[in-house]
Amino acid sequence: MKLFLRIFTLFGIILVSGGAEISAQNITGDENVITVGEESVSLNDFKHIYGKNNRDSVITREALDEYMDLFIKFKLKVLEAEHLGMDTVAEFTKELAGYRDQLARPYLVDMDLLDELVQEAYDRQQEEIHARHILVSIKPDALPVDTMRAWRRISKLKARVAAGEDFTDVAKSKGGSDDPSAVDNGGDLGWFTAFQMVYSFEDAAYNTSVGEMSDIVRTRFGYHFLQVNGRRAARGEVQVAHIMVRVPDATKKPMLMNAKATIDAVSEFINSGESFESLALKYSDDATTASKGGVLPWFGTGKMVEEFENASFALENDGDISEPFLSSYGWHIVKRIGFKGPSKFEDVKRQLKKKVSRDSRADVTRSSFLNNLKDEYNFTMDSRRVSNLETAVSRTDSVFFKGHNIEYVKKSELGRALFSFDENVITVMDFLDFAGNQKPRGLDRPSKMILKAMLHNMVEERLLAYEDERLEKKHNDFRLLIEEYHDGILLFELTDTKVWSRAVKDTSGLEEYHTRNAELFMWPERVDIAVYTCEDAKLAKKVQKGVKKNKDIEGMRRELIAERPLAIRIESALYPEGTNNWADTVFAALKDGSFKISEKAPRFISIPVGGESIVLIDVRELIPPTAKSLEEARGQVIASYQDHLEKEWIMALRRKYQVEINTEVLYSLSRLED
Predict the structure, then answer these.
(1) How far out from the chain centre does Cα 418 lie?
(2) Which of 464, 580, 633, 646 is the residue whose CA sits 20 to 30 A from 350?
(3) Is 446 in the same domain as 428?
(4) Are 226 and 241 within one domain?
(5) Does residue 202 lie within any of the structural domains?
(6) Statement: residue 532 has pLDDT above 70
(7) Which DSSP category does 496 fall into?
(8) Which region among 111-125, 375-389, 608-622, 632-646 has the lowest average model confidence (pLDDT)?
C-alpha cells in the first residue's frame, strides 16, 4: 500500500498515513509505527511498552497521541546519548551488565517446574506432618565404598523395624541412628511442614501414609528412612506473651516443686486482676521478653517446643490465658495476643517463589532446565573421549591444576570433540584448560569422581552461558526489558547533564532566567502583621498602648518571663492569604469593610481566644503582589529553568533527527481495542 497520500512536517515530525484505512485484520504487528533517526520501533514493541505504562486504560486516539509525544521525547534523548557514545563508556556497560545478570536469572531455570514447586509448597503448608527418622551419616562427596557401607547399614536398620522391632529402640540402639538427638527422642522430629526440612526429606514425608515407613532417602546429611505418625491441618500462626519460671533440672523434685509454687502464685495474681505485663516483668525468667510484657514474636508449627506450641494454639480468643504448664525449659503461663490462619495462595505466592529459589528445590529446577537445554541443543558427550580421560587421570591428578602436565593424554586426543551442543564443539584440550583453572575439592576422592564432577561443571557452565547469550533472541519480553534498562540509564545520565544538574550549577543562566521571567515568580498580595497573644485584657491594653508609643514589647515580654512565662507571645511576618489564621482574619475584615488600614496611628483587631486571653493583631501594611528574589524563589526558579532547558533541548533534537510516525498503524491499536 502506498503511504504518501498525506505527508506533512511539524517540528521535524513526519506524519504518514495511507489513502485507505488499514483494517485491524491486516495488521501483523511487525509494521514500524515510528522511526526516530535511523531507529524504528515495531507496533508489537510499541504496544508492549504502551501497555506496561498504561495498565487497564482504554486505548483511544487521543491517549495514543499523548503517549506518542512522550515516547518521541524519550527516544530523541536516547538517540542523542548513543550519538555521543555514552553507551560505549565502561561505567555504562558495567552497570547495564550488572542489571542484565539480575534480570536473566529467572530465565535460566525451568519456570514451569518452578511454578509447580511453588504450588506444591503452598499445598504442603496447608498440612503438618508428625514423623520420626533414623539417620546414617554420609558426606555428599563420600567415596563409593563408604557410600555402599552406609547404604547397607541403613538397609539393615530399616529391615529391623520392618520385622517388628520398636522404632525408638532401633534408633537408640548401638549402631542405630547417627542423629545425636535420637538418644533423647528416639528419632522423633515432632510436627513440621514445608521448608522446615531439606526438600528430599520433606518429599519423602509428604509421600508416605500415616503408619507407614518411607523408602530410604539421601540428603546432604546422609541416608534416612522415616515413619509418619500423623497428619493434621495447618495451625497457622499465633502470637503470645508468656511468663516462665525456669527449672534448671526437672529430675530434681524439690527444684521442680519450688518453681511450681512460684508459677501457681503468679497464676493467682492474674486471676485476682493483676496485669499480665507487670507480672512478666517481676517474675519471668525469660530476660529477653520480661521487659516487653512477655511478648514473643509470631510463630507456627516447629518453632517452639511442643508443649508450648500446644498450649498457645489451644487458646481460643485473644486475651485468653492458659493454666500453668511444664516444658523442658520450666513452668509457663501464656496469654494469646493474636492469631492468623493459613494465608491465601495469592498473598504468599511471591514470598514462596523466593523461598523455593533459595531452597534445595532450586537444584531440581536447575537440573530440569539443564536437561531441557541438552534436548533442545542436541547435546552429545563422546564416551570414548571420557574413557580416555579417565585412564589418563587415573595415572596422575596433575591435570586438575594450573600448569598441568598432560603427558598421559595422547596428543591425538587434544583436538577431538569431548562434547557438543548446537554449533558448539568443546575439545579435550578445552576441558583440560578448564580443569586446570578450577580449584578442585575433595582431592582424596578417586580421580574418576573428580573428573565426573568437573565435566558436569563444565557442561553446566557452557550450556548456561550459551543460553544466556541467546536470551534476547528467544524471549521478546526479556529483550524489551533490557532495552528499557539500556535506554533508562542513558536517559538519566544525559538528562542530568543537559537539564537537572545544569540548572543547579549554571548560576549565571539561572539568574538571567529569573530576571527575564520575574512575572512567573511573584508573591501574592500579603499583609504585614504582628500578632500579640496576651494572657488577659489588662496586659493586652498595656501592649496596645506600648505599640502605639513604639515601646519595646519584646523587652516587656522578657521582663515577665520569670513569673509569667506565657504572659505575652509574639509572632510577626508577611503572610499571603491562606497561610496564617490571623492573617486570614485580616483579609476577611478588609474584604467585608469591617477594617481599614490607617496611615496614622497603628490599628488593631482584638480577638478573645478563650479564658481571659486576648489576641491583638497589629495590621501594619497591605503589600501588593511583588516579584520574589532569586533566593526567595530558588526552588521554583530551578524547576522552571529545568523545564525551559528541556524544551529548548527537545526542539534542538527535533531539528537534528527526523521523526516519522505511521499514524494508520498507530491508530490500529485503538481499533484492536474495539
Answers:
(1) 43
(2) 464
(3) yes
(4) no
(5) yes
(6) yes
(7) I
(8) 608-622
pLDDT over threshold 50, residue 2: no
pLDDT at residue 406 tops 90? no
In a domain, 31, yes or no: no
Q: Is 642 helix (H, G, I), strand (E, B) or coil?
A: helix
Other C-beta atoms lying within 10 Å of the C-beta of residue 588: 12
Residue 283 lies in a domain: yes
Q: What integer is the mean pLDDT of 318-337?
A: 96
CB 17 within 8 A of CB 3: yes
The reply to whether 538 and 607 lie within a common domain is yes
Co-location of 220 and 132 in the same domain? yes
* 269 in Cβ contact with 279 (< 8 Å): yes
- pLDDT of 15 reads 58
Cell of 578: 491562606
Are 542 and 610 contained in the same domain? yes
Give the position of cell 562427596. Answer: 141
Instruction: Give the integer Cα–Cα distance in Å for 351 and 111.
Output: 16
Count the domains in the chain.
4
C-alpha closest to that of 620 among 642, 633, 607, 604: 604
**616 and 568 within one domain:** yes
Buried b (16+ CB within 10 A) or exposed e, 327-345: bebbbbbbbbbebeebbee
Residues 211 and 243 in one domain: no
- Cell digits for 478? 526479556
Residue 545 has a pLDDT of 93
Full DSSP string of 533-560: EESSHHHHHHHHHHHHTT--HHHHHHHH
**What pLDDT does residue 599 have?**
65
Work out whether strand 39-42 and strand 127-137 pair parallel, antiparallel, or are unpaired. Answer: unpaired
CB 614 within 8 A of CB 582: no
Q: Which range (18-32, 356-370, 515-529, 597-611) has the least confidence? A: 18-32
Question: Is the pLDDT assigned to residue 19 strictly greater than 50?
Answer: no
Average pLDDT, the chain: 90
Whether residues 229 and 257 fall in one domain: no
In angstroms, rounded to a whole number, what is the distance separating the alpha carbons of residues 131 and 107? 37
pLDDT number for residue 1? 31
> pLDDT confidence of 626, banded at 50, 70, 90?
very high
Which of the listed residues 191, 212, 233 is the one where a domain comes to its end? 233
The packing angle between helices 383-395 and 447-469, to 10°, is 130
Angstrom distance (rounded) from CA 238 to CA 588: 58
